Amino acid sequence: MNTVPERSLPFDVSFLEEVAASCPTPFHIYDEAAIRDHARRFQGAFSWVPGGFCNYYAVKALPNPAILAILRDEGMGFDCSSGTELTLMERLGIRGEDIIFTSNNTPAEEFRQARDLGAIINLDDLSHVDFLAREAGMPELICLRYNPGSLKEGNAIIGTPREAKYGFTREQLFEGYRRARDLGARRFGLHTMVASNELNPDYFVETARILFELVVELKAGLGIDIEFVNLGGGIGIPYRPEQKAVDYQILSRGIETAYQEIIVSAGLDPVRVVTENGRVVTGPYGWLVTRVRHKKETYKRYLGVDATMADLMRPGMYGAYHHITVPGKALPEKSLLEGTPEQGPEKTGSAPVNVWDVTGSLCENNDKFALDRELPEVEVGDLLVIHDTGAHGHAMGFNYNGKPRCAEVLLRSDRSVRLIRRAETVDDVLQTILWDAVP
Ligand SMILES: *Cc1c(COP(=O)(O)O)cnc(C)c1O
Questions:
Q1: Distance from residue 300's CA to the centre of ligand 1 (Å)
Q2: Cα–Cα distance for residue pair 208/330, rounded to 1 Å
Q3: Is 321 annotated as a binding residue?
Q4: Minimum-distance ligand 1 atom for the alpha carbon of 145
Q5: Which atom belonging to ligand 1 lies closest to the Cα atom of 122?
Q6: Cα-flanking dihedrals φ and ψ of residue 218, to 5°?
Q7: Are 101 and 123 in contact (CB under 8 A)?
Q8: How far is 125 from 214, CA to CA, in rounded Å?
Q9: What does DSSP assign to residue 394?
Q10: Are strands 120-123 and 407-411 parallel, antiparallel or unpaired?
């Protein structure tokens, strides 16, 4: 039984070696054609939505302006959560209702920045209704974030809604809209985000139902017309080879049925449906390319590569699985391992197998990209390709142990290659030190 079916790549080893000749490893490489193709399929699946469906890309997933420009070109909006992300919008010339500002524990100056940009502001807390009005002025359009509490189970990454710090309770939501209207708001949106990396489409359909029902109740209780519901992000991606991507036709049809049964049946005006997915939009179309630097055999077998957890934190932080390919080399026909990656492999007999912990060079034992992973025959100097790094990859980078963050490269639709962020240098890492203050 081969536990790890191979996954395809949009490039081969000689192509990568050519890129590496001018941009040394490690680097993340993103596939423009695949990002565009997915964006069309995803947004196209919701063509039934009155007023037009829009995904507001969660900028935090991959905040590189070259990628954001591609997504803008494909008709996406942007979900920002910080002042820096709003500044990125300013620099890209993106303004107005193409931006949703969804933040929490928000400082006044970020509300002011969002107001100046004309962004849709999505409030996380009842006290922020008055705070926003006082500090930045109540906008005409305001969105509130609902936390459904025990109505909803939640999932592993985001936790159960009752434990989550985000959003308004149901009672607070009614109070919040009433108060926002008193303070001058005239247009209203409703938001929730209760899942992360979820592959079951039913989960999102159920979320849509909860929000649609609230829209009806808000109309009945307060006479408020909600003009859009924002289902949040959280659509998962198949990190593991045996997993399957969410079927957008099933997802879209499920949400459409709920819309018909709840919004249309209640005779309400059309309500737009929007989302703010990040991971599913770019995650599968990015790869971290790294070179094997060193092999080590002690109580376990280690492949040391030139990337570290500073370039991709998910395995170390969440124990997340990221598939690894050795381009140009195939896995053995018959795996010497038993069990699935979840169960953890077990060696069968004493035959030497190509099973490795793939490690970076941080002084942290969780600086590992894979544990007990079966790989083809690998030599020092080989390239490894770590899959699904197009979201929460480079973006989560850090400089611990003085590691400069790596470069980002775009594989253009015409197959040319463009450096879209250079690697940091040691000087970059040291640049905030105030040498004059050193005694
Ligand atoms: C992180 C986040 C998203 C995007 O989540 P994905 O899992 O990348 O789709 C959307 N909205 C909010 C409020 C978030 O915090």
A1: 37
A2: 43
A3: no
A4: 13
A5: 13
A6: -65, -35
A7: no
A8: 17
A9: G
A10: unpaired
Alpha helices in 223-304 (DSSP H): 248-259, 279-282
Show the beta-strand stretches assigned E in 280-321: 286-297, 301-305
pLDDT at 343: 44
For ligand 1, which residues put their CB under 6 angstroms from it? 58, 60-61, 79, 102, 193, 196, 232-235, 276-279, 391
Task: Give nearest CA residue, ligand 1 atom 13.
Answer: 102
Query: In this structure, what token pair is assigned to residue 169?
Result: 């309770």
Write the pLDDT tens digit of every residue in 261-304: 999 999 999 999 999 999 999 999 999 999 999 999 999 999 99
Task: Give the chain's domains with CATH numbers.
Answer: 13-28+284-430 (2.40.37.10), 32-281 (3.20.20.10)
Q: pTM of the predicted model, to two decimals?
A: 0.93
| Residue 165 pLDDT grade (very low, low, confident, very high; cuts 50, 70, 90) | confident
Which atom of ligand 1 is the closest one to the Cα of 283?
8
Pocket test for ligand 1, best of 102, 235, 246, 314 (most atoms within 8 A of CB): 102
The number of angstroms, rounded, from the C-alpha of 180 to the middle of its chain's C-alpha atoms is 30
27-31 and 286-297 strand pairing: antiparallel
Separation of CA 159 and ligand 1 centre (Å): 14
pLDDT tens, residue by residue, 96-126: 999 999 999 999 999 999 999 999 999 999 9
| Contact indicator for 213, 266 with CB cutoff of 8 Å | no
Task: Kindly give the distance from the C-alpha atom of residue 277 to the centroid of ligand 1, in angstroms, as a whole number.
Answer: 6
Find the Cα–Cα–Cα–Cα dihedral 117, 120, 124, 130, rounded to 10°: 70
Annotated binding residue at 318?
yes
What pLDDT is stored for residue 6 in this prediction? 72
**Annotated binding-site residue? 297:** no
Least confident of 73-87, 137-151, 153-167, 218-232: 153-167
CA–CA gap between residue 350 and residue 336 (Å, rounded): 10
Ligand 1 probe mutation, 80, 99, 105, 196, most atoms within 8 A of CB: 196
User: Is 166 flagged in the annotation as binding?
Assistant: no
Q: Residue 364 C-alpha to ligand 1 middle, in angstroms?
A: 28
Helix (H, G, I), strand (E, B) or coil at 174: helix
Nearest to 81 by CA among 38, 53, 110, 117: 110
Which residues are part of the catalytic machinery? 363
